[in-house]
Design a protein that fits this description.
- It comes from Flavobacterium ammonificans.
- Belongs to the RutC family.
- It holds the Pfam family Ribonuc_L-PSP.
- This is Reactive intermediate/imine deaminase.
- It is built from 2 helices and 6 strands.
- By secondary structure, it is of the alpha+beta class.
- It has a single domain, classed as 2-Layer Sandwich (60s Ribosomal Protein L30, Chain: A).
- The mean pLDDT is 97.
Amino acid sequence: MKTIIFTEKAPAPIGPYNQAVLTGNTLYTSGQIAINPSTGELVTDSIETETKQVMENLKAVLEAANMTFENVIKSTIFISDMNDFTAINSIYGAYFNEKSAPARETVQVAGLPKNVNVEISMIAVQ
């Protein structure tokens, strides 16, 4: 059985998917990009502000499922330019306790939705 997770505090899906799906005690988030949920506008002033918006969107989705970043066991980061890795990693890392941070991979890709620079998805367990 699956439960669809939705919150207005994160961007509405822009295609045939949901913000997250909870099955049993495991939450699978869809990839989040830097859309401000209040305005619907992309936040791409800098890679730092873009990454922060992505993480805030993920935080809202986790909270809608009664979870926090402490529940995250796996993250996947897609970036359009590996030269942005250090800046992205710095913002991303601020949301986790380094001793209990999740497993993760970071992959450079040829393109992302709406031509953004970063997209992150997560798996979390209650």
